[in-house]
Amino acid sequence: MLRNRELRAALIFISPAILFFLVFWAAPVLLALYYSFTDWQVGQTETWAGLANYTKLLSDPQFHTAVLASMSIVLIVMAVSLVLALGVAIVLADPRIQAGRLWRVSVIVPVVTDWVATGLVFQLFFLPNQGVLASFGQSLGIDALNSVRWTTDAGLAPWAIAIFVIWKQTGLYAIFFLAGLKGIPGDIIEASKVDGANAWQTFWRIRWPMMTPLTVFVVVLSFVTTLGLFEPVYLLTGGGPAGATRTLPLFLFENFFTFGNSGYASAAGIYFLLLSLMFTFTASRILKDRDES
Amino acid sequence: MADEFRVDRRGTKQSLRARNLALVLQSVAAGDGVVSRADIRRSTGLPSATVSEVVGDLVARKVVREVGQARSNGGKPATLLALDRDHHLFIGVHIGRSQIVASRVTLGGRIQESVRLGYNPTDNPIPPAAEAVARLSATASGTVSSIGLATPGIVTSEGVLTQALNYGWSMMPFGEQLSQACGGLPVHVINDSNAVALSEVVLSDRSRVSLVLLWLGTGIGAGIVLEDRLYEGHGHRAGEIGHVDTGTDALCVCGRTGCLEAVAGLFAIVGDADAATVDDFVRGRPNTHAARALAHRVQRAARELARLVSTLAATLDVADFIVGGPLVTHAIGPAVLAAINDELSARTVPGFSTVRVEFSEFGGYDVVIGAAAHAMCQELGVMVTLPDAVSDGSAPSSGRPNEEEEMALSQHFRQRATAVALAASLATAGCGAADGDSLVVEVWTHEFAPLQKALQEKWIPEYEKANPGTKIKLTSIPFAGVVSYDSKLLSALSSGKGPDVWDMGDWNYDSFHKGGYLEPIDPTVFGYASDKELIDSYQPGATKAVERDGKLVGLFSEFNTLNLFYNTDVFAQAGIPPLPADKPVSWEQLGEIGKKLRVENNGKVERTGFQFGFFANFRSPQWYAQNFYTLMRQYGQDDLYVDGKPAATTEPVVKAFKLIHDYTFEYKAYDPTFLNNWFADVPQGRAAMVQAGTWYPASAKESNPNFKFAVAPNPVVDPDDPSTYQNISWLWGWSVNAKSPTPQKAAAQKFLAFILGKKGETAQAAYWFEQAGFLQPSKAFLESDAYRDALKESPWLKLWIDAFNTYKIAPVQHSYDEPGAALVRAIDRVIYDKATPEAAAQSLQQELSRLDSQ
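Output (structure tokens, whole complex):
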């Protein structure tokens, strides 16, 4: 139990954080919630519209496309980058491999670079005929690579975006996994070896279960951040072709800023928030249940 | 303030109040026009209640006025305070050797009127002084608060002249006498060299000034200012250095020998040398005996003055020594100054910086200003700077000793006066803006290098020079950045902030007008009598996109339509003859030409024949719309909506999609995925042709100076059918923020008139055209010599005149809106998803209908 004085001190110390949270998180969310029930158009006064925006969204094919586009990119990114990250972490954590600091740094470099700068590089990377991939194909004699429309083919565009995001984010998840692996006490591993467990068994029965809380965190983090990504989509495809990669953030952005449908965009934002919360809740429940069984 | 070691009296309520008053006033003066009550509370440490009370008192007394509100960053905006520089008037009087000069001065230092009266120095100067004051009071528009009287000699704080050796005056109660003669107005008497020293301080924009002013005339005196305070000394004799002993044997008028005046006074230096001798000496030709004698006297005077200056510098640690008085304007002045400085350099002590003496920048001796400043200082308790001092070089302001010196002085004086006048107007311009604070006009533009260059290097510096007191703050924002220019504009304006004036594409005008952000352009600022006259000064119909209720809400930055640019090197290399410049080719013909121009090697596209404005990396809804609307209109439909209903499955729309489809897949003249840079693809030969406006060559040549091009009229569906001569227009317009404060709005309109030109002016339009390729469709410009010259230099420009006359031109109806976005998707379906034109039209119709039903 905190004594009164300690409690007061604690409150004083966390008050800036609380204030920050209130001003930059709670207030905007509450405002968006309010506006989502209005017909607000940028620059005009709003009137109450009840659930109109929400029902309209549910029947808006553009919104459906946006949710689908977002989900497909998120799924590709999560599936690939989490597996890749775990692999990288295992390699980096293995004492026999002796991964130096340079390797660890190289893993984190894409994470700390700027989305826009790297986005422009990836634009050039995917450009047909003149781009990096196309030139690579030319040097290998694979002419077919010239005409691959990475960012303008409805089927490939989500992949192009996902490749960029995976390159950019895997390092971060790898660092988390690495920390998790390193955090497992050595005596437990040793005990398992004494009991005759092989490396495979040690991983699946000792390391992996012990990392569950961390995994939940990384899964949720990757879902939420990827869902919210704007720059890579905007830079690589601009939502195209024909809206195939017009993800939720782009939908929100376009409705708010280009069309001025602010109330409508706010409602989409609230759906967006609900989607993130639902996933977070479900993911932690599933992993916890598994952990307990 | 609190560094007094001894206090001789207990602070009383009154003395504290006076002190608080002085403190507050000092803060207002220091932050003139940008300071609020809260700032004063912070800088003085006084309680808010006291600050409010004192400020209220000062406002009631019209010493301080409220000048507007600070830009709030949340909360109640603070009220800004400035000195009320025009209400209180002061009269400065200078008693000179043979004349009395008096001026009526505002609290800002502006001389409103001056009077000059001669008198006989053996008489009492007070009656003529009183007469001068009476004359000035009679014509005063406000209240004369007090009088400052500058006189030679030693003056006590009670205003008694105790001694003026050169005049033979002693114990004259000037202050009291003048006050009585002027109906009891307070009179503050000051020594003349102190007055000059004071004028140096009030005209300086520095704070905490320490300086010694050396008055070099017949007599020699000094005014000592330490940290903004005039140091008068125990018996008010500080600076009475004329009769210190220099150890020489020169005989002084006072009867002693060796006095400084006897060696370094102006008469002592010049002696019997006539003007020719002085001229010889100054020109470095001391050939005559008289000139050599003069050189000797100058040397001696300089030595003694340098000795004095270095003594003072060592004693007081003051760095600024300023020479005022008749010597400044005397022909021998510069030579004496140089000699003093030579002596001083020789005296430099190792480890100390060399002391230097300079002439007063202000021409030496504005005694009257100094006297008035003294009166203000005594009345208000603080020294205020006088930004308006000498607002007009012609005002007979100064108490100059005699007429001939005035001539020489005036030249020097005028130079300085211009500088000061500039500073003064800077302080007062901007109707309603705070004194001493400049008006800031915020300008936003989309990022386009020639536009930024023109503003930064030409228009803004020139405007700021022509309008001191106005500052233009330019922000450039990428047009298609992650958060685009339009979005930034809209979100800033809708939150009540944003620029005072900005440029934007015509597609924004509807929503921005609806939002109430657009201030109508005031025709009178541009020299037109009415809105109609302003509108009629442009090509018929050109203003359509910026006209609302008979007024313009935007003015042309550029107005353009599309023609066809092509790379002549590429054409020659491919063996294709140049396109006719007087008649458009058909789209069909162009498709065939484009087909021939395409180069593909082993599956790698190396060149494409034709470039639409949109492509994979450049998904601008504006360009999708511009290219599409041109085609749709040529096939016979003006807009995607007919009679307010979506009409996307009509023949013209389908045909337009089909043409885009054929260019991409049949002719393969266009390859949207291959292109990557709007301004480099054609110049670098990756594409052979592009539709663009007059702005294209300037930017294309920026990085490809050897780009060779020709222009053909924009292609049409049927060159023999005039009804297919249809094209789009677009404009970028300058607009003024309706929600900006009034002074900003006025300045914004004025700025636009400056950069775009008033009635009859074509130089601005010519500049924009030459530098940025921006075409203003003003009749005056299109008929001007400048445009004729431009035509001579770039004959292709004629196509735009022709286009305005032969094509039907109108802005696109939809681009940066929901139907515009639907159109983008439909075109994408054609060129990326290989949808048939019919299917694309069908899906567009569905989307538009859906939008319509909501």
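The two ends of chain B are 72 Å apart (CA to CA).
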